[in-house]
Backbone:
């Protein structure tokens, strides 16, 4: 068992007091490795909460730099960070909250050529991406690598999320076979998004990661949780792992990772 | 009559307030085997009112608790 320092006992006391987390759960958190794809609206709150929780190793992937239009919802970034790499900006805040955690930054755009290498070795993945091709790529890579992950998406006042345990529960492709055609669904940049909705959804994803690591409660598997912040109505849609799934079914037709159009790969 | 049971692990939590006294109790239990006995010294007031109640809720058994001359409490708990 880890010998907690006095400061760690105080820092993590509210976790240790929880019957479902306790000393053993906090030890698991300190030994866990979680990677967050996207240091934006969803990735920001997820990164801050996972760092605060003492998740021992946190990876964060993003190729962008902070822009002033991000600051309305991407709460890991401050006005002074405009122009800085998002991964570096987020890492600085995570370290400032909790120097116990090791942050690994990946200033890259995820694509078929690099995703396996980046995600391999992590215990859980948080999908905080802003486009469908990358969401499908994360799903496919997590199924191939057998890494549980949290899918998340937001637009306008709406959010949706589900947790996938590959091989055991419905994957993203069990319900959504392939990305919608380009421009069929507007992006946040086109349609707008209420800033706090990003915090709501990213925080649910962080909670799922913490539950997976500690074993507390039940994961949001085989369920798509959706909400509309205009009415604060939450809905749970039951999903099933599909025999006909082209990825995780018994007769898969997707057997390797591929970039869908519009996923620009910038690997050198 | 004084309790004849001996604690396997002893923690003096005099001056340690809530909730850190419970955190330290939980850390002590985490290092112990089931059936072993933890002896605690707890302050009067909220500590003696809260810590035993919380450990009972987690399934452990209070074997005895008695107030000492200085007003603190000596508590013996068997780990579940």
Residues:
């Amino acid at each position: 068992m880890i010998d907690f320092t006095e400061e760690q006992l105080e820092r993590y006391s509210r976790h240790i007091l929880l019957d479902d987390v306790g000393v053993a759960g906090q030890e698991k958190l300190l030994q866990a490795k979680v990677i967050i794809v996207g240091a934006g609206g969803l990735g920001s709150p997820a990164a801050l909460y996972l760092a605060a929780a003492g998740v021992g190793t946190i990876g964060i992937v993003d190729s962008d730099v902070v822009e002033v239009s991000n600051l309305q919802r991407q709460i890991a970034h401050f006005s002074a960070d405009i122009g800085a790499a998002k991964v570096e900006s987020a890492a600085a805040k995570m370290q400032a909250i909790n120097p116990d955690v090791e942050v690994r930054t990946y200033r890259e755009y995820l694509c078929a050529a690099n995703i396996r290498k980046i995600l391999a070795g992590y215990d859980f993945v948080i999908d905080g991406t802003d486009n469908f091709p990358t969401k499908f790529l994360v799903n496919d890579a997590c199924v191939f690598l057998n890494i549980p992950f949290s899918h998340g998406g937001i637009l306008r006042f709406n959010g949706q999320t589900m947790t996938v345990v590959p091989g055991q529960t419905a994957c993203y492709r069990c319900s959504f076979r392939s990305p919608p055609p380009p421009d069929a669904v507007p992006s946040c940049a086109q349609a707008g998004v209420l800033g706090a909705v990003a915090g709501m959804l990213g925080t649910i994803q962080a909670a799922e990661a913490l539950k997976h690591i500690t074993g507390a409660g039940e994961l949001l598997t085989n369920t798509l949780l959706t909400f509309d912040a205009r009415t604060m109505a939450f809905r749970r849609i039951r999903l099933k792992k599909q025999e006909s799934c082209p990825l995780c079914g018994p007769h898969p037709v997707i057997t390797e990772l591929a970039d869908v159009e519009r996923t620009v790969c910038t690997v050198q | 009559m004084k309790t004849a049971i001996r604690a396997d692990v002893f923690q003096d939590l005099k001056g340690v307030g809530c909730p850190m006294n419970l955190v330290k109790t939980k850390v002590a239990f985490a290092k112990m085997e089931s059936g072993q006995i933890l002896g605690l010294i707890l302050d009067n007031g909220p500590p003696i009112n809260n810590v035993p109640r919380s450990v009972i809720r987690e399934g452990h058994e209070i074997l005895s608790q008695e107030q000492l001359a200085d007003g603190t409490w000596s508590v013996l708990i068997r780990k579940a």
